[in-house]
Amino acid sequence: MTSQLNKDNLPEHIAIIMDGNGRWAKAKNRPRLFGHNAGMKTLKKIVRASSDAGIKIITMYAFSTENWKRSPEEVDGLMNIAVEYFHKEVGELHENNVKINVIGNLNGLGKKVREAAVKAMDTTAANTGLVLNIALNYGGRDEIIHAVKALMAEGISPEAVTEQHISDHLYTKGQPDPDLLIRTGGESRLSNFMLWQMAYSEFMFTDIYWPDFEVDVYYKMIENYQNRNRRYGSAE
Ligand code: IPE
Ligand code: IPE
Ligand code: MG
Asked: What is the residue range of the signal peptide feature (predicted)?
């Protein structure tokens, strides 16, 4: 589908909490991993649609620092899906000039998925199209701690610390904050996603489970975003 969106006021950066895979599968009497596999297809579709629409950056929440609480089977299955995604999709993403950027604590991941992530990033490093941030073993609080530690290690004096310093030490350094946050799956919470960066993001929630999320709904949400009035604390 080619985007009919007005190009003037597009969100530069969209962040998405891809939620509802498990409940989608449960409703079909299938295992949770069936839902995660279906979710990967939606991810591919939405990445393509974002590129088509001329979005500059998307950040997709794939696995949180809290998702380790799930069963070993589910965690393993999710990691395998991530490896598969990196192996199978990088070719096409690269052809489409997409730059992959995995954000999160990569050192806390297994070797296989870490190596696949690093390879995907290396392969696409020079690309100039859509930036695809994949949040894997990502936690907003973990990211802020990581930034604070880095600043302290640099020996910065407490009085000198500014917002810019923190922003520059996050996994998203150099990127604008998300303009729009979308969460599928019916929950209205952040679940530790981009806590610092979401200070002035516009939020949109839908009950649709991630595997059922469609491009036309996505574009409607972007249109809805384009009609919002972002004030940043000012009076008008
Ligand atoms: C989102 O779907 C994917 C991940 C968190 C990895 P869920 O697995 O959270 O699905 P629900 O919320 O249980 O339906
Ligand atoms: C958030 O979803 C994490 C991802 C989508 C990767 P969760 O399903 O883990 O969030 P909670 O547990 O409902 O808050
Ligand atoms: Mg969930």
From this structure: none
**Phi and psi of 21, rounded to 5°?**
-60, -45
pLDDT, tens digit (0-9, with 9 covering 90-100), for 103-147: 999 999 999 999 999 999 999 999 999 999 999 999 999 999 999
CATH of domain 10-141+180-226: 3.40.1180.10
Whether the model clears a pTM of 0.90, i.e. scores above it, the answer is yes
Tell me whether residue 179 is annotated as binding. no
Q: Is 48 annotated as a binding residue?
A: no
> Residue 14 has what pLDDT?
99
127 is an active site residue: no
- The catalytically annotated residue of 8, 9, 29, 67 is 67
Q: What residue spans define the domains of the chain?
A: 10-141+180-226
List residues near ligand 2 (CB under 6 A).
17-19, 61-64, 67, 187, 189, 191
